[in-house]
Amino acid sequence: MADDPADIAAKINARRSEAVAPRGEVAPDERAVTDPQGVASRIERLREHRVKEPPRRALGDLLTARAKQFKRESKGTGVVAQAWSELCPAALLARTGVVGVSRGVLTLAADDSAARFEVDRVLRCGVERKLLKRLALDVRRVRVVVVDQDADNQTES
Description:
Blueprint: H1 5-18, H2 36-50, H3 59-87, H4 90-93, E1 96-102, E2 105-110, H5 113-134, E3 141-148, E4 153-156
């Protein structure tokens, strides 16, 4: 009558826990198990301890992390975008937007070169000075880039 592999493994473990090797001899638990099913169960137990699956991240965790990132980014550009929308002429506002602030440079985006030219004229007429005064950020310069909406490329003109 064949025993269940789990029973065999339990018997082997019981024998191992009872046996104590004299000095200089190999303890029974350090000897190789000759039973194939016992070997298989031992290998499976070793695999359970050695191979750990990477932690699975839930979708909620990813969304929370992304929301924090957007919140951080909006804190910096939200104030700038509000100031730009108040100072920019209404006809030009639909064709422009705030890209961000980095290393003291405020970057504005324009849909095409004509809009970029108009933004440049508006900034030179004193809006740049007013915009920089309103911002609590350390902005030294305003850069206007043309955003190609088809290829998602930015080119500075």
